[in-house]
Design goal:
With about 220 residues, this protein is of the alpha/beta class. The protein has helices at about 20-30, 35-50, 65-75, 90, 110-120, 150-155, 170-180, 200-205; strands at about 55-60, 80-85, 105, 125-130, 160-165, 190, 210-220. Strand 2 (about 80-85), helix 4 (about 90) and strand 3 (about 105) form a beta-alpha-beta unit.
C-alpha cells in the first residue's frame, strides 16, 4: 500500500543567492537572544540527571513524537539520548512500550537548549536533525537551520551531525553552509532506509515514492562557550 505524501513545492530553484552572506554573518556575530526560563529549567533538570551517570551525549533535535529518539536510544545503549521538541502535545504521545532507560524526552526550544549546552561545555557524540521544517519559500531562508542565527551553536556542540530531508535543496544548502563554516562533509547524498525508518515522516515519504537525502559531518567547529 502506497502512502500519500505531497512533495515539497518551492519558488526557489537552486541554492539561495543570499546563503553565503547569511551564514557568514551568523558565524561572525554571536546570537545574543537569552534563553527562556522554561528552557533553563528543562536544561538544569537534564544536566542533573546526566551528571549522576556520565556517558556520551546524543541529541535528537526537533524529535516530534519521539519515534526516532526511541530507536536511537536502543541503538546506543551506552549513551544518553535526549529528544528535544517544543511541543508538549507531540511529546505526550503514548506508546505501549516504556521509554528506554537512557532516553530523556525534553520539552524545550532547540535554539535555547543548544545555547545553554554550549555555555555548559557540552560536546556531543552525535546530533540528529531529521526532517526539520524546510520553510520552502525563498523568503524563509533565515528560518532554516543553516540560515538561522543558532547555526553556530549547533556547530559548536560537535559530534557526528546527520541531517535528513525529502527536499534535496535543503540538504544541498545545509552542506554548502557546512563548507562555509569549514566543516568536512560529503555533501548531499541519497539514502534508502530499506524499511528501517527512523521517523514516521521518513516512512511516509519512502512509501509514497519520494527520495530521501542526507548530509553527514563530523563537526570540528569548536565550543567557545
Amino acid at each position: 500500500m502506497q502512502a500519500d505524501s505531497r512533495e515539497i513545492y518551492s519558488n526557489q530553484t537552486g541554492v539561495h543567492d543570499n546563503l553565503e552572506q547569511v551564514v557568514l554573518k551568523h558565524l561572525r556575530h554571536p546570537f545574543l537572544k537569552p534563553p527562556a526560563e522554561h528552557t533553563r529549567q528543562a536544561f538544569a533538570a537534564v544536566s542533573e540527571r546526566i551528571s549522576a551517570s556520565p556517558a556520551s551525549l546524543i541529541l535528537d533535535s526537533c524529535c516530534g513524537t519521539g519515534v526516532s529518539s526511541r530507536q536511537i536510544a536502543l541503538q546506543h545503549p551506552d549513551s544518553w539520548v535526549i529528544g528535544l521538541d517544543r511541543s508538549a502535545k507531540r511529546l505526550d504521545k503514548e506508546y505501549e512500550d516504556a521509554l528506554p532507560d537512557n532516553l530523556l524526552m525534553v520539552q524545550a526550544d532547540c535554539v535555547d537548549f543548544w545555547k545553554l549546552a554550549v555555555e555548559a561545555g557540552w560536546q556531543l557524540q552525535k546530533h540528529y536533525l531529521l526532517y526539520p521544517n524546510p520553510y520552502p519559500k525563498s523568503v524563509q531562508l533565515k528560518y532554516r537551520w543553516h540560515g538561522h542565527p543558532a547555526f553556530a551553536d549547533l556547530l559548536r556542540l560537535g559530534g557526528l551531525l546527520e541531517v535528513r530531508s525529502n527536499w534535496q535543496l535543503y540538504i544541498e544548502e545545509f552542506s554548502q553552509a557546512l563548507k562555509l563554516a569549514e566543516q568536512a562533509t560529503e555533501g548531499c547524498e541519497v539514502i534508502d532506509p530499506a524499511g528501517q525508518y527512523l521517523t514516521l515522516f521518513e516512512r511516509k515519504y519512502c512509501q509514497s515514492g519520494q527520495t530521501v537525502y542526507r548530509c553527514l559531518s563530523a563537526l570540528s567547529f569548536g565550543n567557545t562557550g
